[in-house]
Design a protein that fits this description.
By secondary structure, the protein is of the alpha+beta class. It contains 19 helices and 21 strands. The strands form 5 sheets. Strands 1, 2, 3, 6, 7, 8, 9 and 17 form an 8-stranded mixed β-sheet that branches. Strands 12-11-15-14-13 form a 5-stranded antiparallel β-sheet. A 4-stranded antiparallel β-sheet has the order 16-10-20-21.
Length: 650
């Protein structure tokens, strides 16, 4: 690592030169940095706006899942079989699916060896269970904080290897030229007051972009507040998007953001709504179900079937639609109540349905109120909320249907390299998933993607970064222009605060670009995002330098919003209908009474991938066939010969 500098309009800007920067602080980022070091490329640094931020460290669920090849019991499995499951989820490239399946065990046991406490039995088998969209028992868990355990242990690896970490550095420009990435420009939030320390540029041969999903796009979000994302800056610099239409949405708490899956639903809490002041309580689900058994069964199944799924719109996902109708159409607030049993539940639990009854009976939980059952089966679930200021034993838990995970994202090939050479999006930033994905594949994908990118960089892209003069010649204008724009914000007379703009852009995304979509709403969304983006540098009012990071995040989000909304609209114009976690309706308001049994699932584009480009403020969408699962040569002598000649990485 070497440090140089150059000046822009009298402002000094440091240039830090090294082979690879890893942008991000989550499990994918830390795993990639550790792998690079192990593969011999030690000229690497982590760049992050907050080393303690991100989804991996600050999110979880009832039993947060890691998805991998079956490693216990008599049930047969294979790499190809797992790849086929991933591929069958729709809009999924087969080579990516095969890589994630092939490397799942290697990635999993790396985590085991560094101390992530995944459970095994007396004989050493790493047991599993079935998760959503999983035909086998491939899922495992280290508890509700699996990804935090992963992040903590990978962070120990980074510290032990003395990998450089730049904390408090926010990306404000991805630096590209001629189809190549040269690094990133950052705002140094540790030194914002000093113009000569305000900016730092990382000149790198390779950039691994592990910035997570665009979490701040939505007002109703299950992402932790510490997660923002940085897709807009990537789009701005020529990185393409992939499958941006595909998200996961589900019921989550909104004061303390947490997915309410598993036992949070299986103990059968009471769903109630109130007016905006918390008065006029009513169990609103009873209005929409024919009998108590159907209602209780739907609530129970939300534990297994947490993400909203149009294929379950007449079953468990009808709960999500009822919550949406109550909050977005009737403008009421919705809560879970664990202190009282729902109306209609028989004292002997005889009307809960066979699957629910068997589950509660096997769990020795056919008694008491929901809070009693939750305490019996999962006391940690109660403690989690208590530690975050919510006592489920005494108070209601406010909820909504929230954005939770972007299955799409930035494009990448089988080495996780994007259409821009030397730029590797990994983790949720990479659009590696399609329409459906088994629960836990995101954690596996982040580790596999980091491994693949590190392999390729260490073997193919191991050259030193450009010399400073060559670097400035390639991207100096972009650095100068961005610095001038930011400085203009600091001395401008804009009329709108970053906070006001953020609220507006998030609310319109949750209204028109979430799990209920229609063409009219998306057109309004695109027009609003485009207008705000065009006026951003003149309209934004930064009253204090402390507001600068929030203002620049808004710029990133406006680009992302325009691109994502355009992708969603293009999908409809292409003829695409309801699928995955997206319900497309001509009128998003008048649907609840007619929805059961009338949602037509559209598989017409299931074997297609949508790719999206952003250039000069314009969004272009293209469609191609998915890449099929490769039939790789598995004859040992041939693979061995190729491996010895270093032809396995190419």
């Amino acid at each position: 690592m070497k440090i140089d500098s150059f000046a822009v309009n009298g402002i000094a800007i440091d240039i830090i030169r090294l082979n690879t920067i890893v942008v991000g602080s989550g499990a994918a980022a830390l795993g990639a940095a550790s792998r690079l070091y192990d593969f011999g490329q030690q000229d690497v640094a982590i760049v992050t706006d907050n080393i303690k931020g991100g989804t991996s460290r600050n999110a979880g669920s009832d039993k947060q899942t890691y998805y991998k090849l079956t490693l216990a019991g008599e049930e047969g499995d294979s790499v190809f079989s797992m790849a086929q499951t991933l591929f069958d989820g729709g809009a999924m490239d087969g080579d990516i699916a095969l890589c994630e399946a092939a490397l799942s065990t290697r990635s999993f046991f790396k985590l085991v060896e560094i101390g992530v406490p995944f459970p095994h039995n007396n004989m050493g088998e790493y047991v599993g269970y079935k998760t959503d969209h999983d035909p086998r028992q491939r899922a495992t868990s280290a508890g509700p904080l699996t990804s935090r355990f992963m992040t903590d242990k990978l962070w120990e690896q980074v510290l032990n290897k003395q990998i450089a970490v730049f904390d408090g550095y926010t990306v404000v420009r991805v630096l590209t030229n001629g189809g190549n990435c040269f690094g990133v420009m950052c705002l140094n939030t540790n030194e914002m007051q000093d113009p000569n320390k305000r900016y730092t540029v990382f000149c790198a041969t390779n950039t691994i972009y592990a910035t997570g999903g665009p979490a701040s796009l939505y007002a109703l979000s299950a992402y932790p507040h510490e997660q923002n994302g940085a897709h807009g800056f990537a789009f701005e610099s020529g990185v393409d998007g992939k499958n941006l239409t595909e998200w996961q949405y589900g019921i989550a708490s909104i004061k303390f953001r947490w997915n309410l899956s598993g036992t949070y639903q299986q103990v059968l809490p009471r769903y109630i709504s109130t007016d905006q002041n918390g008065n006029d309580k009513k169990e609103f689900l009873n209005e929409h179900f024919e009998n108590a058994t159907d209602l209780l069964n739907a609530v129970f199944l939300k534990g297994y079937q947490w993400p909203f799924d149009v294929q379950k719109a007449a079953g468990s996902s009808f709960i999500d639609l009822c919550v949406y109708y109550e909050t977005q159409i009737k403008k009421r607030r919705v809560w879970l109540d664990y202190t009282c049993n729902p109306k209609g539940l028989c004292p002997d639990f005889s009307n809960v349905g066979k699957e629910c009854y068997a589950y509660l009976e096997k769990s020795n939980a056919l008694f008491g109120e929901p809070i009693d059952r939750l305490g019996h089966m999962n006391s940690e679930a109660i403690e989690l909320f208590k530690n975050n200021g919510i006592d489920l034993q005494k108070e209601l838990l406010e909820i909504s249907v929230c954005a939770q995970h972007n299955n799409g994202g930035l494009t990448g090939n089988k080495w996780w390299e994007s259409n821009v050479r030397h730029f590797f999006p990994i983790g949720e930033a990479n659009g590696s998933h399609g329409v459906y994905r088994p629960g836990g594949t995101a954690l596996n994908s982040g580790q596999c993607g980091g491994l693949r990118a590190a392999q390729y960089i260490a073997n193919i892209y191991d050259e030193a970064p450009p010399q400073t003069d060559d670097f400035i010649k390639a991207v100096g204008d972009d650095i100068s222009n961005r610095a001038e724009q930011i400085e203009r914000l600091l001395c401008g007379d804009g009329k709108e605060s970053p906070k006001t703009l953020r609220k507006r852009l998030q609310e319109r995304m949750s209204l028109s670009g979430a799990f209920i979509r229609n063409e009219e709403g998306l057109i309004r969304l695109i027009n609003s995002a485009t207008e705000d983006l065009n006026e951003f540098w003149d309209k934004t009012a930064v009253k204090s330098i402390c507001e600068l990071p929030e203002a620049l995040l808004n710029y990133d989000l406006l680009i992302a919003q325009q691109v994502y909304a355009a992708a969603m609209l293009n999908y409809m114009v292409k003829g695409g209908g309801s699928r995955g976690s997206c319900l497309i309706l001509p009128d998003g308001n008048q649907f609840l009474k007619q929805i059961k049994g009338q949602v037509k699932i559209d598989f017409s584009l299931f074997k297609k991938v949508q790719e999206v480009s952003f250039e000069n403020g314009n969004v272009t969408c293209r469609w191609r066939d998915v890449r099929q699962i490769p039939k790789e040569d598995a004859w040992f002598e041939n693979v061995w010969n190729s491996y010895l000649k270093d032809k396995s990485i190419r």
